[in-house]
Amino acid sequence: MRTRLPVTVALATALLLTSCGGDSDDAGGGSGSGDVLRVATEGTYAPFSFHDPDSNELTGYDVEVAQAVGDELGMEVEFSETQFDAIFAGLEADRYDVIANQIGVNPEREEKYLFSTPYTYSNGVVITRADDTSVSSLADIAGKTSAQSTTSNFAEVATEAGATIEAVEGFTQAITLLKQERVDVTVNDSLAFLEYQKTTGDQDVKVAAEIDDQSRSAFAFRQDSADLQGRVDEALESLRADGTLAEISERYFGEDVSAE
Description:
One of its GO terms (cellular component) is cell envelope. This protein is of the alpha/beta class.
């Protein structure tokens, strides 16, 4: 059974977040310097960040890891939910201190943001309709239309493979467009797809190909948050050493994906 978290959820659009952030003394100055760690997440990306269907509480692997880090640091964790394509803009605008949403680390992002040590290792997959036999490798999506959050790592992977991107708000919408035959494929995380099939039993879509490169996911910070980055890394090290990260991972994925 998943642990229900005592989290404070700030459910708001990016516009509302602007006004909320500006009014918060705890949030003033940002960078997690006060007693509150402001964490951005989607809230619609199971099993990493979603709402428990029974309680409607925000939960998920990334949510629990962020909460555990906050507990380790002795800080209250305040979650803000926002669409993925607005999540980095909100970080840059100091609406929160850190992003916890299966954020893949890549060289382009490392030029703009700081990252914690990774706490998730997984692989990307190409998802197609079950009756589509035209894709057996990433190269086969060249010339096809792929549903992606435009600022995601996987959008970049699909673009580099020659696909045309159809912008979506998240994984659920991508699957919907795929089943409606409005797009040909979507590239996403294998763990997200396994969770989707486990919870829905949907056999109309399948994994058509796996991407060789392993994805590393971590917390993302602004460039001026080196102190917070260091403290979060220390917290993650403690949580890894005492088995907390492995315990959270096994509860969501049935295995430890927090280590290589």
